[in-house]
Batch of 2 targets.
Target 1
Amino acid sequence: MIRHPRYKIGRRLGSIVYEKCQTPKFALAKERGGAKDKRPRGKSEFGVVLLEKQRARLMYGVPERQFKRYVREIIREGGANQGEMLYKKLEARIDNTVFRLGLAPTRAASRQMVSHGHILVNGVKVTIPSQAIEEGDMIGIRASSLNRKIFAELENKFKEVQAPSWLKLDVNKKEAKAVGLPRLDQGAPLLNWSGILDFYKR
């Protein structure tokens, strides 16, 4: 039986939260445990957007204080499509970018990879997972890190990855260029981004 705390959170918030919950094993365990679960109570509008906020925050691995700061910056800037602005902020973080490029199996692993100084942005080592990627930035791997175990069989990993359209991956050079910025399109996580903003506007 799966008893890891993250699986428990995944059962409550959905498999979208953690990559380790997006497996047939987790789906089967959830299905088997479904019959034992209590009858779900109806949630208020506040409860629904609260869960959406928790899903987004945990999925991207952003602390509550930092997540709230992102939202307040967006609300202060104003303008339309604020939900998309929040999505861009989260999606363009360097730790998420590393994950999207297939360099790490999970966002947690990508945060560790960045924190340990294995990743370069425009040729400069970065150690802050929240650093924002901008259009035109080059993302690469430190030459001294390429022989480490975490980058073993990198060519095979690149063959399997489906990088988002805003990232252009050069397999031979083992680097990528941000040719645009994230857009809230069909490839985005199915979350109520506008509702998350409304949660903090209450």
Note: The mean pLDDT is 83.
Target 2
Amino acid sequence: MHTRMKDVADQVEEWVRRIYSLATRLDAFRNDTIIIDDLRSVPDSIRKLQQRLNAEDDAAIKTELQDTIGRRQAQFDSLQKLEQTMDRAELQLENTLTALGTVYSQMLLVDAKDVDSSKTQRLRENILDQVNSLNDVLSTMDEVYAAGDQIARTKSNLGAKAR
């Protein structure tokens, strides 16, 4: 019984580490001034570029404007995907915190003299499911951040070329 409860406690500890990791990433996202500024400015930039394209007569400049609009739209699509992923992660965090509270109360109810192994096993499985769910969210966030880093590098390179 002691070993089973130690396993549950270890899983809860891993669960809390994952919650902290997710919360830290969400805070970093919500406080990232570049992303905040881009979410506000990119749609306006696309609109202005589109207006300029509509007024332009030179074919070469039109081609460049269309390419720029396409890159800006791709940037905006990535930003929206990132924002949606973070919104889902925030909901997952809320659900996980609720589940953690439930598990905590269940653990308090567990009395060493009358705990059967099936209750402990279900509790361990519940925790493992939550940890796996958080791992999935963190993996998705890693993928989105990697794409965002690529966009930032491209944006930086384009800015350097423009200078």
Note: DSSP finds four helices and no strands in the chain.
